Amino acid sequence: MSQIGGSNYKKVLRDYASALNQTAQRVLGRRKIGKNKSYGEASGALRKSLKFAIKGGDVTFGSSQPSAKFIYWGVNGTERNRRSPMSYRTKQPPLDPILRWMKVKPIRLRDPETGSFIKQTESGLRSAAFLIARAIKKKGIASLKYYEIAYKDTLPKWSKKLAEAQAEDLAAVFTLEIGNTTIKTK
Fold first, then answer.
1. 113 in helix, strand or coil?
2. Domain count, the chain
3. Report field, pTM of the whole predicted structure over 0.85
């Protein structure tokens, strides 16, 4: 006997969850800020860590990366409220992730007086990372609700397929008994 939410619906649900996850990964890779058209996530670690799981009829999306919640919800700064549940108060962001980001994105140091590029030293890079961390503490981090954006993008395309699969599974459980005759819809 078939069940509502049977094999048709589960297959389409798995395909939809995969499409939604891939769309969320694309959203992380196409983020644009100002004139920087190829901003994206620098290392790609968060994008690669996005996963989904289906248990029964429940679909769970998420990431094991510690930075996932900060990117998704954003962080309030000391001078700017981002409407986030997390805030910088006294601590600044750690320098090591900023230094790694500076290496992935080709950040070059300039002489403040002449504006010309200067040789990158470890102390110069750490000073720049400290200034970036202080600016992040003041301004916070803008949220990027990559799963919400992906959901809004994919649901209109998949809602008909999901409904049809659920209707097929629903039709499979109906049985008509009239007298001694039993008729199953499938």
1. coil
2. 2
3. no
